[in-house]
Design goal:
Number of helices: 10
Helix content: 40-55%
Shape: globular
Distance between the termini: 58 Å
CATH superfamily of the largest domain: serine acetyltransferase, domain 1
Structural class: alpha/beta
Number of strands: 15
Protein backbone atom coordinates (compact mmCIF):
# COMPACT_ATOMS: atom_id res chain seq x y z
CA UNK A 1 0.00 0.00 0.00
CA UNK A 2 1.49 3.37 -1.01
CA UNK A 3 1.56 6.49 1.16
CA UNK A 4 -1.45 8.07 -0.57
CA UNK A 5 -3.57 4.97 0.01
CA UNK A 6 -2.45 4.81 3.64
CA UNK A 7 -3.37 8.47 4.11
CA UNK A 8 -6.80 7.98 2.51
CA UNK A 9 -7.61 4.97 4.64
CA UNK A 10 -6.49 6.78 7.80
CA UNK A 11 -8.77 9.68 6.87
CA UNK A 12 -11.63 7.26 6.18
CA UNK A 13 -11.67 6.28 9.84
CA UNK A 14 -12.62 9.86 10.71
CA UNK A 15 -14.43 10.77 7.48
CA UNK A 16 -17.90 11.89 8.58
CA UNK A 17 -19.25 12.16 5.04
CA UNK A 18 -18.25 8.60 4.19
CA UNK A 19 -19.78 7.40 7.46
CA UNK A 20 -23.04 9.22 6.62
CA UNK A 21 -23.14 7.66 3.15
CA UNK A 22 -22.53 4.17 4.55
CA UNK A 23 -25.21 4.62 7.21
CA UNK A 24 -27.72 5.83 4.62
CA UNK A 25 -26.95 2.96 2.28
CA UNK A 26 -27.19 0.36 5.04
CA UNK A 27 -30.67 1.66 5.84
CA UNK A 28 -31.66 1.65 2.17
CA UNK A 29 -30.39 -1.91 1.72
CA UNK A 30 -32.50 -3.13 4.62
CA UNK A 31 -35.58 -1.30 3.35
CA UNK A 32 -35.26 -2.37 -0.29
CA UNK A 33 -33.89 -5.91 -0.62
CA UNK A 34 -34.06 -5.74 -4.42
CA UNK A 35 -31.23 -3.17 -4.32
CA UNK A 36 -29.20 -4.78 -1.55
CA UNK A 37 -26.69 -6.40 -3.91
CA UNK A 38 -26.19 -3.16 -5.85
CA UNK A 39 -25.79 -1.10 -2.68
CA UNK A 40 -23.28 -3.51 -1.18
CA UNK A 41 -21.25 -3.63 -4.39
CA UNK A 42 -21.33 0.15 -4.85
CA UNK A 43 -20.73 1.31 -1.27
CA UNK A 44 -20.71 -1.15 1.58
CA UNK A 45 -17.98 -3.40 0.18
CA UNK A 46 -15.48 -0.52 0.08
CA UNK A 47 -13.27 0.96 2.79
CA UNK A 48 -13.12 4.54 1.53
CA UNK A 49 -15.19 6.95 -0.53
CA UNK A 50 -12.44 7.02 -3.15
CA UNK A 51 -12.53 3.24 -3.49
CA UNK A 52 -16.30 3.35 -3.90
CA UNK A 53 -16.01 6.10 -6.51
CA UNK A 54 -13.54 4.04 -8.53
CA UNK A 55 -15.92 1.08 -8.53
CA UNK A 56 -18.98 3.19 -9.31
CA UNK A 57 -17.48 5.10 -12.25
CA UNK A 58 -15.74 2.05 -13.68
CA UNK A 59 -19.02 0.13 -13.75
CA UNK A 60 -20.66 2.94 -15.71
CA UNK A 61 -17.83 3.86 -18.07
CA UNK A 62 -16.54 0.41 -19.02
CA UNK A 63 -16.57 -0.54 -22.69
CA UNK A 64 -15.03 -3.03 -25.07
CA UNK A 65 -12.07 -0.67 -25.35
CA UNK A 66 -11.46 -0.21 -21.62
CA UNK A 67 -12.87 -2.84 -19.25
CA UNK A 68 -14.04 -1.86 -15.79
CA UNK A 69 -10.90 -3.11 -14.04
CA UNK A 70 -8.63 -0.92 -16.17
CA UNK A 71 -10.78 2.15 -15.58
CA UNK A 72 -10.90 1.40 -11.86
CA UNK A 73 -7.10 1.28 -11.78
CA UNK A 74 -6.90 4.61 -13.62
CA UNK A 75 -9.27 6.25 -11.16
CA UNK A 76 -7.34 4.88 -8.21
CA UNK A 77 -4.12 6.18 -9.75
CA UNK A 78 -5.67 9.63 -10.12
CA UNK A 79 -7.11 9.90 -6.60
CA UNK A 80 -3.85 8.58 -5.12
CA UNK A 81 -1.81 10.97 -7.25
CA UNK A 82 -3.87 14.06 -6.43
CA UNK A 83 -5.52 14.17 -3.01
CA UNK A 84 -7.40 17.30 -4.12
CA UNK A 85 -9.70 15.05 -6.18
CA UNK A 86 -11.07 13.47 -3.02
CA UNK A 87 -11.47 16.84 -1.32
CA UNK A 88 -13.27 18.27 -4.35
CA UNK A 89 -15.53 15.21 -4.58
CA UNK A 90 -16.61 15.68 -0.97
CA UNK A 91 -17.28 19.38 -1.54
CA UNK A 92 -19.34 18.48 -4.63
CA UNK A 93 -21.46 15.98 -2.69
CA UNK A 94 -22.13 18.56 0.02
CA UNK A 95 -23.00 21.16 -2.62
CA UNK A 96 -25.63 18.88 -4.16
CA UNK A 97 -27.08 17.94 -0.77
CA UNK A 98 -27.30 21.59 0.35
CA UNK A 99 -28.57 23.17 -2.87
CA UNK A 100 -30.72 20.55 -4.62
CA UNK A 101 -34.04 19.86 -2.86
CA UNK A 102 -34.25 16.55 -4.75
CA UNK A 103 -31.21 15.32 -2.81
CA UNK A 104 -32.50 14.15 0.55
CA UNK A 105 -29.27 12.37 1.49
CA UNK A 106 -25.55 12.36 0.69
CA UNK A 107 -25.71 8.92 -0.87
CA UNK A 108 -28.24 9.90 -3.54
CA UNK A 109 -25.94 12.12 -5.65
CA UNK A 110 -23.11 9.63 -5.25
CA UNK A 111 -25.23 6.73 -6.49
CA UNK A 112 -27.71 8.28 -8.90
CA UNK A 113 -27.00 11.89 -10.00
CA UNK A 114 -25.22 11.99 -13.32
CA UNK A 115 -24.12 15.60 -12.89
CA UNK A 116 -22.07 14.63 -9.87
CA UNK A 117 -20.79 11.44 -11.50
CA UNK A 118 -19.81 13.15 -14.75
CA UNK A 119 -17.95 15.81 -12.79
CA UNK A 120 -15.88 13.19 -10.98
CA UNK A 121 -15.11 11.47 -14.28
CA UNK A 122 -13.89 14.85 -15.55
CA UNK A 123 -11.61 15.18 -12.53
CA UNK A 124 -9.94 11.87 -13.42
CA UNK A 125 -9.62 12.86 -17.09
CA UNK A 126 -8.16 16.23 -16.06
CA UNK A 127 -5.54 14.45 -13.96
CA UNK A 128 -4.57 12.33 -16.96
CA UNK A 129 -4.46 15.40 -19.22
CA UNK A 130 -2.20 17.24 -16.77
CA UNK A 131 0.14 14.24 -16.69
CA UNK A 132 0.57 14.09 -20.45
CA UNK A 133 -1.86 11.23 -21.15
CA UNK A 134 -4.02 13.31 -23.43
CA UNK A 135 -5.31 10.54 -25.71
CA UNK A 136 -6.62 8.60 -22.71
CA UNK A 137 -8.09 11.77 -21.20
CA UNK A 138 -9.95 12.51 -24.43
CA UNK A 139 -11.23 8.95 -24.58
CA UNK A 140 -12.66 9.30 -21.06
CA UNK A 141 -14.23 12.62 -22.04
CA UNK A 142 -15.90 10.99 -25.03
CA UNK A 143 -17.08 8.00 -23.02
CA UNK A 144 -18.38 10.23 -20.23
CA UNK A 145 -20.34 12.25 -22.78
CA UNK A 146 -21.87 9.06 -24.20
CA UNK A 147 -22.87 7.69 -20.78
CA UNK A 148 -23.95 10.83 -18.93
CA UNK A 149 -24.74 13.34 -21.67
CA UNK A 150 -22.23 15.77 -20.14
CA UNK A 151 -19.24 16.98 -22.18
CA UNK A 152 -16.46 18.58 -20.10
CA UNK A 153 -13.12 18.97 -21.83
CA UNK A 154 -10.31 17.50 -19.69
CA UNK A 155 -8.14 20.60 -20.17
CA UNK A 156 -10.75 22.90 -18.63
CA UNK A 157 -10.27 23.96 -15.01
CA UNK A 158 -13.10 23.27 -12.57
CA UNK A 159 -13.08 24.11 -8.87
CA UNK A 160 -14.79 22.41 -5.97
CA UNK A 161 -18.26 22.66 -4.48
CA UNK A 162 -19.85 22.47 -7.94
CA UNK A 163 -23.50 21.61 -8.57
CA UNK A 164 -24.50 20.52 -12.08
CA UNK A 165 -28.22 19.96 -11.60
CA UNK A 166 -29.89 17.43 -13.94
CA UNK A 167 -26.81 17.95 -16.16
CA UNK A 168 -28.14 16.71 -19.51
CA UNK A 169 -26.42 18.49 -22.42
CA UNK A 170 -23.97 20.51 -20.32
CA UNK A 171 -20.90 21.48 -22.38
CA UNK A 172 -17.66 22.96 -20.99
CA UNK A 173 -14.98 23.93 -23.49
CA UNK A 174 -11.24 23.37 -23.45
CA UNK A 175 -10.09 26.72 -22.04
CA UNK A 176 -13.07 27.32 -19.76
CA UNK A 177 -12.56 28.04 -16.07
CA UNK A 178 -15.16 27.37 -13.37
CA UNK A 179 -14.16 28.55 -9.92
CA UNK A 180 -15.42 27.21 -6.57
CA UNK A 181 -19.06 27.06 -5.47
CA UNK A 182 -20.68 27.51 -8.90
CA UNK A 183 -24.14 26.10 -9.65
CA UNK A 184 -25.51 25.42 -13.12
CA UNK A 185 -28.48 23.59 -14.53
CA UNK A 186 -29.03 21.40 -17.58
CA UNK A 187 -28.22 22.47 -21.14
CA UNK A 188 -25.69 25.10 -20.05
CA UNK A 189 -22.90 25.72 -22.56
CA UNK A 190 -19.56 27.32 -21.74
CA UNK A 191 -18.38 27.39 -25.31
CA UNK A 192 -16.47 29.24 -27.95
CA UNK A 193 -17.85 31.49 -30.66
CA UNK A 194 -16.77 29.05 -33.35
CA UNK A 195 -14.18 31.33 -34.92
CA UNK A 196 -11.66 32.15 -32.18
CA UNK A 197 -8.57 30.07 -31.37
CA UNK A 198 -6.40 29.83 -28.29
CA UNK A 199 -7.96 31.01 -25.02
CA UNK A 200 -11.53 31.11 -26.27
CA UNK A 201 -13.90 29.95 -23.52
CA UNK A 202 -15.64 31.60 -20.55
CA UNK A 203 -14.16 32.25 -17.11
CA UNK A 204 -16.82 31.75 -14.44
CA UNK A 205 -15.84 33.19 -11.08
CA UNK A 206 -16.88 31.80 -7.73
CA UNK A 207 -20.44 31.80 -6.46
CA UNK A 208 -22.08 32.21 -9.89
CA UNK A 209 -25.54 30.78 -10.63
CA UNK A 210 -26.25 29.80 -14.27
CA UNK A 211 -29.84 29.02 -15.22
CA UNK A 212 -31.04 26.18 -17.42
CA UNK A 213 -30.22 26.47 -21.11
CA UNK A 214 -27.92 29.48 -20.75
CA UNK A 215 -25.18 29.77 -23.38
CA UNK A 216 -22.01 31.67 -22.46
CA UNK A 217 -19.80 32.02 -25.52
CA UNK A 218 -16.28 33.29 -26.00
CA UNK A 219 -13.47 34.34 -23.69
CA UNK A 220 -15.75 36.37 -21.43
CA UNK A 221 -15.66 36.76 -17.66
CA UNK A 222 -18.66 36.10 -15.45
CA UNK A 223 -17.92 38.07 -12.31
CA UNK A 224 -18.05 36.85 -8.73
CA UNK A 225 -21.58 36.21 -7.48
CA UNK A 226 -23.28 36.95 -10.81
CA UNK A 227 -26.53 35.37 -11.94
CA UNK A 228 -27.28 34.25 -15.53
CA UNK A 229 -30.96 33.85 -16.35
CA UNK A 230 -32.32 30.67 -17.92
CA UNK A 231 -32.11 30.60 -21.71
CA UNK A 232 -29.81 33.62 -21.92
CA UNK A 233 -27.02 34.00 -24.47
CA UNK A 234 -24.03 35.78 -22.93
CA UNK A 235 -21.51 37.31 -25.33
CA UNK A 236 -19.96 40.01 -23.12
CA UNK A 237 -18.40 40.19 -19.68
CA UNK A 238 -20.81 40.20 -16.74
CA UNK A 239 -19.97 42.40 -13.76
CA UNK A 240 -19.74 40.89 -10.27
CA UNK A 241 -23.10 40.51 -8.48
CA UNK A 242 -25.03 41.45 -11.61
CA UNK A 243 -28.05 39.61 -13.02
CA UNK A 244 -28.29 39.29 -16.82
CA UNK A 245 -31.05 37.80 -18.96
CA UNK A 246 -32.07 37.70 -22.60
CA UNK A 247 -30.73 37.07 -26.09
CA UNK A 248 -28.26 38.66 -26.12
CA UNK A 249 -28.05 38.94 -22.33
CA UNK A 250 -28.36 42.37 -20.77
CA UNK A 251 -28.10 43.51 -17.13
CA UNK A 252 -31.53 43.62 -15.49
CA UNK A 253 -30.75 43.87 -11.80
CA UNK A 254 -28.47 43.26 -8.88
CA UNK A 255 -27.63 39.99 -7.23
CA UNK A 256 -27.45 40.80 -3.55
CA UNK A 257 -26.53 37.34 -2.32
CA UNK A 258 -22.81 36.92 -1.79
CA UNK A 259 -22.96 33.57 -3.58
CA UNK A 260 -26.23 33.10 -5.49
CA UNK A 261 -25.07 29.59 -6.34
CA UNK A 262 -25.81 28.60 -2.74
CA UNK A 263 -29.24 30.24 -2.61
CA UNK A 264 -30.46 28.87 -5.97
CA UNK A 265 -32.90 31.79 -6.24
CA UNK A 266 -33.53 32.49 -9.94
CA UNK A 267 -35.81 35.49 -9.39
CA UNK A 268 -34.79 38.89 -10.73
CA UNK A 269 -34.20 41.76 -8.33
CA UNK A 270 -34.30 45.37 -9.59
CA UNK A 271 -31.12 47.47 -9.32
CA UNK A 272 -30.40 48.70 -5.82
CA UNK A 273 -30.69 52.36 -6.93
CA UNK A 274 -34.13 51.89 -8.52
CA UNK A 275 -35.94 52.78 -5.34
CA UNK A 276 -37.92 49.52 -5.40
CA UNK A 277 -37.38 46.45 -3.21
CA UNK A 278 -40.02 44.36 -4.98
CA UNK A 279 -38.99 41.22 -6.76
CA UNK A 280 -40.15 40.70 -10.33
Amino acid sequence: MNKSQTARRAEAAVDPLWKSIRDEVETAASQEPALASFLHASVLNHRTLEDALAFQLAAKLESSVLPAMVIRELITEAVDGDLQIGKSMRADIRAVRERDPAATSYSEPFLYFKGFQALQAYRVAHYLWEHGRKALALYLQSRTSEVFGVDIHPASRVGKGILIDHATSVVVGETAVIEDNVSMLHEVTLGGTGKATGDRHPKVRHGVLIGAGAKILGNVEIGVGAKIGAGSVVLEDVAPHCTVVGVPAEPVGDCRDEEPSREMDHRIRPPADSGSEDEN
